[in-house]
């Protein structure tokens, strides 16, 4: 009876003892550690793309011949692309799912699904519209699979690895939390990334410079107050706006609704408000004179009457109207500069060139009148009658002293705000790569040749020293960068009429030129990605406000990020490649996709059989 074992204490007779989970897990781990897996030749029959190396002196491993033959589209990080010695069947089955191609009919159906899903996300619509759109496609004869008819969205998230090694610039507005010298975000970043360049948004600095210039000039302050009063009158009183349009219809004139002066970018808003006042001048003045009249019934409130008298008095002054037309020209150039600063692709040199061009145009307004101002002077013809309105204190003055004072103030404040782009800063030293900033080259003049050769050497040396650690990681020394700079000069000199950004793109997009300027390419890439403007962030805030409405408050942060990314950076609807998206969806799953599977097919078939049985029973009863 040695094979019999007495039951242990606290154990019921006839029951097996319970196993300890921790001991079971440890035993299984120990088994997997000691277990030696072998390659089975039968796997090659089921997976024709599988290859196994048995050459002497090499480690035994298996790999995918299809992936290695197509490295451009294959997943190079896959273990079966590199070769693995872990012989597991589930690894092969998972890889086979990714190689399996979708049928053409199903690909067409899934492409239509992707088009509908991308349309919903790109146009910033709620997910509930997808169900309606799905039904509309089916009613119009479009091919769709039997599933995925509910609300769905599937987008990938792009991550950034090793951001400290890739970070070279930081763009922000002027808030202390961002640019504070002690605990600001830029200061915190520079502690970890010494070569970081923090840049205050140039579009924001433009607005601040114009605001500072307005505070110094009483006439500009008066005009600003008048534009604000006109906007408030029609924004908060729909009755006043209706009366304005009735007066315009009676006078057979066109009128535009006065716009606000305040917005994400202030200069274009002020420019638009001034243009509306110039174009609708007689209609707006007639309405304000009517509101200030003592005979008006019902009589407006004292605040409205006082505002109407002040605005009508300003608009009937000849010098004020002339100054309004002059300021329209000033704001026209500043608004153009502001729009350049708001572009996503704006670079340092492009910003400096646009700034200098704007300053030249503004300086020319000191001595000559713009088109709008000349038109006003010709129509008033010295009598002070403009568009049927008799202006007070008409004169032949063209406001030359006031014009010069305004332009000098604007240029002075903008030059002070933007001086780091073209004066003694690391950002300004990148101008050594711009051929338009080089001295004139004359091969017959020895002095001119020497000046051209030495130009930019110190700037390139400073840039190489500033990015010394970054260049060292790529195996580049400052001496190599300076040596390449002379070769770059001979290359860019023949393209001096081409914009600097286009020259850089021609270098970066050519493998031959990248090899020619291997060292300078690092500085060129840094220059191309410096964030000189944060207008795209403002547009991101607007996009977030449109996407996450009160009716979509349950969106998660990750989903909101994906929808914003599609709305801001996604291609246009006509450029979206839905077939590639469907193929990526098909191959990105660990489990096999089943778009043609209908989980309710068996139930529907069972209901039909029951109906047939019941119909047969009724026929038998009738017989």
From TrEMBL:
Residues 1-28, 593-623 are annotated as: Disordered. This is Zinc finger protein 862. Residues 19-28 have a biased composition (Basic and acidic residues). InterPro entries: HATC_C_dom, RNaseH-like_sf. Residues 607-623 have a biased composition (Acidic residues). It comes from Dissostichus eleginoides (Patagonian toothfish). SUPFAM superfamilies: Ribonuclease H-like. Residues 512-566 form the HAT C-terminal dimerisation domain. GO terms for molecular function: protein dimerization activity. It holds the Pfam family Dimer_Tnp_hAT.
């Amino acid at each position: 009876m040695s094979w019999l074992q007495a039951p242990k204490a606290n154990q019921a007779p006839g029951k097996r003892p319970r196993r300890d989970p921790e001991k079971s897990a440890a035993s299984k781990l120990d088994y997997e550690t000691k277990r030696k897996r072998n390659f089975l030749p039968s796997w090659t029959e089921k997976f024709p793309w599988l290859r196994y190396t048995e050459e002497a002196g090499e480690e035994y491993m298996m790999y995918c011949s299809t992936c290695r033959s197509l490295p451009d589209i294959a997943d190079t990080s896959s273990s079966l692309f590199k070769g693995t010695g872990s012989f597991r069947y589930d690894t092969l089955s998972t890889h086979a799912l990714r190689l399996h191609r979708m049928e053409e009919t199903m690909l067409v159906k899934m492409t239509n699904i992707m088009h509908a899903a991308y349309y919903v996300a790109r146009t910033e619509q709620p997910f509930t519209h997808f169900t309606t759109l799905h039904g509309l496609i089916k009613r119009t004869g479009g091919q769709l699979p039997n599933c995925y008819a509910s609300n769905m969205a599937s987008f990938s998230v792009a991550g950034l690895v090793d951001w400290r090694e890739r970070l070279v610039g930081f763009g922000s507005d002027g808030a202390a939390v961002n640019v504070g010298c002690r605990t600001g975000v830029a200061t915190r970043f520079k502690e970890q990334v010494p070569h970081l360049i923090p840049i205050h948004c140039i579009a924001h600095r433009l607005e601040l410079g114009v605001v500072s210039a307005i505070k110094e000039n009483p006439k500009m302050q008066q005009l600003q107050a008048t534009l604000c009063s006109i906007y408030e009158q029609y924004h908060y009183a729909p009755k006043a706006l209706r009366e304005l349009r009735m007066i315009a219809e009676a006078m057979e004139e066109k009128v535009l609704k006065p716009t606000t002066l305040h917005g994400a970018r202030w200069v274009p808003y002020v420019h638009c408000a001034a243009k509306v006042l110039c174009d609708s001048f007689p209609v707006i003045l007639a309405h304000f004179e009517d509101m200030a009249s003592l005979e008006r019934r019902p009589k407006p409130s004292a605040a409205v009457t006082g505002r109407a008298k002040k605005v009508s008095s300003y608009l009937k002054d000849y010098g004020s109207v002339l100054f309004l037309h002059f300021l329209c020209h000033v704001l026209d150039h500043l608004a153009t500069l502001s729009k350049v600063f708001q572009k996503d692709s704006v670079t340092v040199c492009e910003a400096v060139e646009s700034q200098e061009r704007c300053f030249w145009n503004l300086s020319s307004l000191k001595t000559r009148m713009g088109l709008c101002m000349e038109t006003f002077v010709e129509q008033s013809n010295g009598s002070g009658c403009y568009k049927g309105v008799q202006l007070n204190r008409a004169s032949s003055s063209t406001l030359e002293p006031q014009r010069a004072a305004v332009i000098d103030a604007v240029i002075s404040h903008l030059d002070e705000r933007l001086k780091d782009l073209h004066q003694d800063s690391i950002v300004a030293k990148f101008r050594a790569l711009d051929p338009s900033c080089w001295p004139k080259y004359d091969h017959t003049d020895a002095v001119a040749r020497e000046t051209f050769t030495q130009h930019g050497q110190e700037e390139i040396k400073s840039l190489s020293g500033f990015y010394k650690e970054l260049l060292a990681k790529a195996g580049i020394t400052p001496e190599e960068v300076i040596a390449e700079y002379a070769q770059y000069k001979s290359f860019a000199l023949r393209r001096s009429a081409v914009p600097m950004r286009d020259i850089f793109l021609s270098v970066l997009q050519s493998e031959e030129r990248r090899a020619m300027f291997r060292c300078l390419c690092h500085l060129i890439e840094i220059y191309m990605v410096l964030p000189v403007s944060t207008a795209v962030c403002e547009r991101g805030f607007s996009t977030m406000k449109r996407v996450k409405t009160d009716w979509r408050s349950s969106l998660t942060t990750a989903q909101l990020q994906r929808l914003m990314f599609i709305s801001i950076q996604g291609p246009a609807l006509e450029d979206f490649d839905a077939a590639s998206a469907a193929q990526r969806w098909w191959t990105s799953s660990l489990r096999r996709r089943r778009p043609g599977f209908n989980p309710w097919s068996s139930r529907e078939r069972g209901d039909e059989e029951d109906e047939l049985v019941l119909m047969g029973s009724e026929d038998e009863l009738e017989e």
